[in-house]
């Protein structure tokens, strides 16, 4: 069995350790060296080790897939039960003194979110009396020369 694949494997382990300990551009450089060294180690590895890695990958992902499928099925059953058992939410009426109209805008934490704003627009300021930081603002066209 050739042991030449151990050289890039140790290089990848060392550069992976340095990647964890370094910051910024050095981390990117050592991370790239780690990935390249691992790929080279897999290419140079004997076929027995490559077959072992392939089997572990296939059976490991199959086991994880079955575990995730069982979780998703139990979640879908639980969601169907909770959706059918939900009570209907009654929207309370809001009474205000200034004729504000209450509109349901959406839901917030399970309760209806009501917006009570007046339908009249806000008054616009008079453009002749505008001030910015204490100085009067005059339109450019109205300046006298």
Q: Can you give a write-up of this model?
A:
It is a single chain. The protein has 145 residues and is α+β, with helices and mostly antiparallel strands. Helices cover 51% and strands 13% of the residues. The chain has 3 helices and 4 strands, in the order αααββββ. It has helices at 6-21, 25-44, 47-84, and strands at 101-108, 111-117, 131-132, 135-136. The strands form 2 sheets. Strands 1-2 form a two-stranded antiparallel sheet. The protein has a two-stranded antiparallel sheet with strand order 3-4. Helix 1 (6-21) runs antiparallel to helix 2 (25-44). The protein is elongated and about 90 Å long. The protein starts with 5 loop residues before the first helix and ends in a 9-residue tail after the last strand. The model has no long low-confidence stretch (mean pLDDT 77).
Short summary:
This protein has helices at 6-21, 25-44, 47-84, and strands at 101-108, 111-117, 131-132, 135-136.
């Amino acid at each position: 069995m050739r042991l030449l694949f151990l050289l890039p494997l140790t290089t990848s382990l060392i550069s992976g350790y340095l990647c964890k300990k370094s910051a910024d551009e050095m981390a990117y450089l050592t991370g790239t060296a780690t990935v390249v060294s691992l790929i080279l180690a897999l290419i140079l590895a004997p076929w027995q080790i490559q077959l072992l890695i392939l089997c572990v990958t296939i059976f490991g992902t199959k086991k994880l897939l079955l575990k995730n499928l069982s979780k998703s099925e139990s979640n879908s059953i639980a969601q169907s039960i909770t959706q059918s058992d939900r009570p209907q939410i009654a929207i309370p009426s809001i009474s205000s003194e200034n004729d504000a109209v209450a509109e349901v805008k959406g839901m917030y934490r399970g309760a209806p979110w009501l917006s009570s704003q007046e339908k009249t627009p806000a008054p616009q300021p008079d453009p002749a009396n505008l001030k910015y930081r204490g100085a009067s603002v005059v339109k450019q066209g109205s300046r006298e020369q």
